[in-house]
């Protein structure tokens, strides 16, 4: 029924105008799509090891902004202007405001239908002795919240920090991550930066360190994280 409706929707305008060549082209494309889906289902049913790759779109339905889309800015800044080692070196307060905003959004977000469907797929297939791994560019932990067990976060994790002095990596779900960031991070372009002293930004708890922490995520210009996920 759905296929019939789709075919009619695609070809009806051309039928009314007598464009038979275009009708034939659309029908061939739809038949090929249906054939490809059938092939996919067959291959999927036989696969023992499955990788599901996700990006920002899967979290957009959860209310997590996709900052690289048109108009995707924080205040007047583009993500690629903030998420760099150079920007953090020049203005760690601004960068931490930005990531505080993103952490709070993620902490208050709920997994989308897509997150839940992927987790359910993994749970169901694991009972059949089949493995599923989620490879995601997202850093919001929503796949974990949905129940996915095997998640490879290739761009890092909002809720992990890395010390720029000793390299220690820790999980941190505090809200806010430090007292000086409470109430900060508004994305409103009219809001000015809060000039938070570096000593009051997130600091390392390792004995004798007290180094400045950064989000343990991949930035533009980074060469990759120093530890496996």
UniProtKB/TrEMBL annotation:
The keyword DNA-binding does not apply. Keywords: Cytoplasm, Metal-binding, Mitochondrion, NAD, Nucleus, Transferase, Transit peptide, Zinc. Residues 30-229 form the Deacetylase sirtuin-type domain. InterPro entries: DHS-like_NAD/FAD-binding_dom, NAD-dep_sirtuin_deacylases, Sirtuin, Sirtuin_cat_small_dom_sf, Ssirtuin_cat_dom. GO terms for molecular function: histone deacetylase activity, NAD-dependent; metal ion binding; NAD+ binding. It catalyses: N(6)-glutaryl-L-lysyl-[protein] + NAD(+) + H2O = 2''-O-glutaryl-ADP-D-ribose + nicotinamide + L-lysyl-[protein]. The keyword Metal-binding applies. Zn(2+) binds at residues 163, 166, 204, 209. Pfam families: SIR2. The active site is at 155 (proton acceptor). It is found in: Cytoplasm, Cytosol; Mitochondrion; Nucleus. One of its GO terms (cellular component) is mitochondrion. Residues 177-197 are annotated as: Disordered. Gene3D superfamilies: SIR2/SIRT2 'Small Domain, TPP-binding domain. PROSITE patterns: SIRTUIN. PANTHER family: NAD-DEPENDENT PROTEIN DEACYLASE SIRTUIN-5, MITOCHONDRIAL-RELATED (PTHR11085:SF10). This is NAD-dependent protein deacylase sirtuin-5, mitochondrial. It comes from Triplophysa tibetana.
């Amino acid at each position: 029924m759905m296929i019939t409706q789709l075919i009619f929707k695609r070809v009806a305008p051309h039928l009314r105008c007598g464009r038979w060549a275009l009708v034939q082209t659309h029908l061939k494309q739809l038949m090929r799509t249906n054939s490809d889906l059938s092939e996919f289902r067959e291959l999927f049913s036989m696969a023992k090891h499955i990788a599901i790759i996700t990006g920002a779109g899967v979290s957009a339905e959860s209310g997590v902004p996709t900052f690289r889309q048109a108009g995707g800015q924080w205040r007047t800044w583009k993500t690629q202007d903030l998420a760099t080692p150079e920007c953090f070196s020049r203005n760690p307060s601004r960068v931490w405001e930005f990531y505080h905003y993103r952490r709070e959004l993620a902490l208050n977000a709920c997994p989308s239908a897509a997150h839940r469907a992927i987790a359910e797929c993994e749970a169901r297939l694991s009972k059949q002795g089949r493995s599923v791994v989620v490879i995601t560019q997202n850093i919001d932990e929503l796949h974990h919240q949905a129940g996915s067990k095997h998640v490879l976060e290739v761009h890092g994790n909002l809720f992990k920090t890395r010390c720029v002095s000793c390299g220690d990596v820790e999980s941190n779900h505090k809200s806010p991550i430090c007292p000086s960031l409470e109430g900060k991070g508004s994305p409103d372009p009219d809001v000015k930066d809060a000039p938070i002293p570096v000593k009051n930004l997130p600091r390392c708890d390792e004995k004798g360190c007290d180094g400045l922490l950064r989000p343990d995520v991949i930035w533009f210009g980074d060469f990759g994280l120093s530890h496996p996920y």
